[in-house]
Write a structure and sequence with these properties.
The chain is of the alpha+beta class and about 325 residues long. It is about 55% helix and about 15% strand. It contains 10 helices and 6 strands. A 6-stranded antiparallel beta sheet has the order 3-2-1-6-5-4, sandwiched between helices. β4 and β5 form a beta hairpin. α2 packs antiparallel against α3, α2 packs parallel to α4 and α3 packs parallel to α5. The protein is elongated. About 40% of the residues are buried.
Length: about 325
C-alpha cells in the first residue's frame, strides 16, 4: 500500500501521523488510554510482589492469580461487552479503573488477599473495556476514507507518475489527508494534515463548489489572496467558475499556486450522495495532457465514490 520509490534509503523512509479526521478525538481519548495502560502496568509488574510481601500470599498460585485476574477478566469483559457502543465502553472502563484502584488500596489497608483479588478483577474490567472502547471509537473513521481511497489513489499515482492528493473540507479550509508522490520531487506541499485556502487549487475549488451555500458566501466575501497572477481574486469570476465545476464534474487549476504546476481534481461522493472529499493530480505545465488526465482523475474519484457507497461511508445513520 506504499508507492514505489527508487533508492535503498528512500524506500526505508516512513511517515508517522494521526489522521486529521480523528486528531481531536484522539487527544481527548488519550487520558483514558494512558490511565488504562499505566494502571495495567502497575498491577502486572507489582501485583505478585504485593500479594507475597504485603498480603501474605506465599503460594505461587495466589501470586499468579493476581496477574491472571487482571488480564483474564479484562479479556472476558471486553468480549462480553463487544456489542456495546464505544462511548459506553470508555465510560464503563474508566469508571472500573478508578473503582478497582480505590478498592485495591482499601484491600492493602486492611490486609485482605481475597479483597485485593476482587479489586484486581474490577480493575481488569476497566483495563479491557477502556482501551477497546477508545480503539472502537477511533478506528472506523481513521480507516474509513483514507483506507478505502488509498488503493485507487495509489493506482492513479503509479499510472501517471504524478503526485496524487486526497483532501476534505473543514470549515473554510482544505485539509490534506493523503498524498502520494515521489520523494525526489522538489515541491513538498501540500503536507498531510496541512490546511490551505479553498480558492487557489483545483482540489480546493472542487470542495468549495460543493460546499454549503453559507460557506461559499463566507469565502467569496473574504479577501482572496493571490499566489500568482493567475489566482482567482474576483469573487464574481470565482462564483461563475464554481458553477461550471458543479456542472462539468471537475476543476482545473492552471498555475494558480505557483508558476509550475497545473492541478486537475474531481469530487468524491459518499453513500448519501454528498461530496465528502476530492481527489487531484498535480502536473507540470509542459507535461499536461488535459483530456487524459481529467479522465483518469474522474475515474479515480468515481471508483472511490462507489467503494464508499458500498461501505456505507457518509450515510447519515452510518
Amino acid at each position: 500500500t506504499a508507492p514505489r520509490t527508487p533508492g535503498v534509503w528512500a524506500s526505508l523512509s516512513f511517515r508517522l501521523s494521526i489522521p486529521t479526521a480523528i486528531r481531536a478525538d484522539f487527544w481527548r481519548a488519550a487520558p483514558a488510554v494512558v490511565a488504562g495502560w499505566a494502571t495495567g502496568g502497575l498491577f502486572l509488574s507489582l501485583g505478585a510482589n504485593i500479594v507475597h510481601n504485603e498480603l501474605g500470599g506465599d503460594a505461587h498460585l495466589w501470586q499468579g492469580l493476581a496477574v491472571a485476574m487482571l488480564a483474564g477478566v479484562g479479556a472476558i469483559t471486553a468480549f462480553v461487552m463487544r456489542r456495546r457502543s464505544p462511548r459506553t465502553l470508555v465510560v464503563f472502563g474508566t469508571a472500573a479503573l478508578a473503582v478497582g484502584t480505590a478498592l485495591s488500596l482499601i484491600a492493602l489497608g486492611i490486609g485482605s488477599l481475597p479483597f485485593y483479588l476482587a479489586a484486581t478483577a474490577v480493575t481488569g474490567m476497566g483495563f479491557g473495556t477502556g482501551f477497546s472502547g477508545v480503539v472502537a471509537s477511533l478506528a472506523p473513521r481513521s480507516v474509513g476514507l483514507q483506507r478505502l481511497a488509498r488503493p485507487y489513489l495509489l493506482d492513479l499515482y503509479e499510472t501517471t507518475g504524478y503526485a496524487a492528493h486526497l483532501a476534505i473540507r473543514e470549515g473554510r479550509e482544505l485539509v490534506s489527508i493523503e498524498r502520494l508522490q515521489s520523494p525526489r520531487r522538489p515541491v513538498r506541499r501540500p503536507l498531510t494534515g496541512g490546511r490551505y485556502p479553498l480558492h487557489a487549487t483545483a482540489i480546493g475549488l472542487v470542495l468549495l463548489a460543493h460546499a454549503p451555500d453559507d460557506v461559499r458566501a463566507e469565502v467569496l466575501a473574504a479577501p482572496l489572496p493571490a499566489y500568482t497572477a493567475r489566482t482567482y481574486t474576483d469573487p464574481v469570476q470565482l462564483e461563475r467558475l464554481l458553477g461550471d465545476i458543479r456542472r462539468t464534474g471537475y476543476a482545473v487549476s492552471d498555475r494558480q499556486v505557483d508558476d509550475i504546476h497545473v492541478g486537475v481534481a474531481a469530487p468524491v461522493h459518499g453513500a448519501d450522495g454528498s461530496v465528502v472529499a476530492a481527489v487531484s493530480l498535480a502536473l507540470t505545465e509542459q507535461d499536461v495532457d488535459g483530456k487524459n488526465m481529467i479522465h483518469l482523475v474522474r475515474l479515480t474519484a468515481t471508483s472511490i465514490s462507489r467503494t464508499l457507497t458500498a461501505a456505507g461511508y457518509g450515510r447519515p445513520d452510518a
